[in-house]
Write a structure and sequence with these properties.
With 131 residues, the chain is mainly alpha-helical. It is built from 4 helices and 2 strands; from the N terminus they run αββααα. It has a domain at 73-105. It has helices at 6-14, 37-61, 74-109, 125-130; strands at 16-22, 29-36.
Length: 131
Amino acid sequence: MSKLESGSTLQRLRNRYRLVVMNDDTYEEVVTFRLSRRSVYVGLSTVFVLLTGLTVALIVFTPLRYYIPGYGSASIGREYRELKYATDSLEKQVRYQSLYIDNLKKVVSGDVPLTLDTAQLQLPEEELSND
């Protein structure tokens, strides 16, 4: 097997080929193309770049960008943070009110265990004699 030389690779890119489209019934040539490998590579690369550019333009310049995660506007992110703060404070307030209502129900129903104050009061002598 012979080694590939750089000159032969460049030569193969420049070789001309003929692509013929024929009618199957009459064997009449419909279209004939003269191509080289280099022109096919350049053509396919151009099509790829154009399709990529059109896709990016479609996403950037139309409302489709809002369907891509993380590509929202700055005002939407700010509004989201404000709503999150408001929701957190409301959840905290509801938790406090629920705890207050539960404690109030316990007091009204008498379920609160009472602890007696057993500390000795130091009353002055004159108040003891008035009783």
